[in-house]
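ok trying again, last paste got cut off:
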Amino acid sequence: MSSLVKEDLQKKLFQPLGQSLREFIEIECSAHDRFYLCAAVTKGGEVEISTVKHFRTDLDEKYEMAEKWFLKDLEMIDGKEADTDNPCFDMHFEKVYSWEAYSCASKYAFARTLNKLNYMYLKKDLKIVNFDITYINDDSLWSSNNGDCLVLMKICFYASNLLCLSLCPMP
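nice, full thing came through this time. structure:
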């Protein structure tokens, strides 16, 4: 489903602007409207982060750019709590914007993408705090192209270890 939305976003909104959509996540904004947080690269190689409103008119899907910022202006991404399954995070530009992703996995996927785009296009010191950095960096075994599947595998591995330890008799 998300690949269809990404393809539709690319075709209807980003391609006409001469941009390439690299990542998007659904964010919680209001009860009635659907919003996405997107990362796209312009033809000139600038990385833009934007919020996009998704709405339906008759049978047609429509997208409207609500706000946008440049990655070069992003000072910090704050994951709020690295030790809990929390989908909330802040992005610090001139102003701090608070977001709630659809899931914790999508929050990490977006942070990974911004980190990768920063490395590819800017190579600036982007502060990423309150995230488990193991899941953010590309040099880690657990953050290959399989991303979220490997994160889930690691969580299952830890859970099975805890289960085995809890079943072992104490001397």
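cool. The beta strands are 19-27, 34-42, 47-57, 60-70, 76-78, 88-92, 96-100, 127-129. The CA atoms of residues 21 and 40 lie 4 Å apart.
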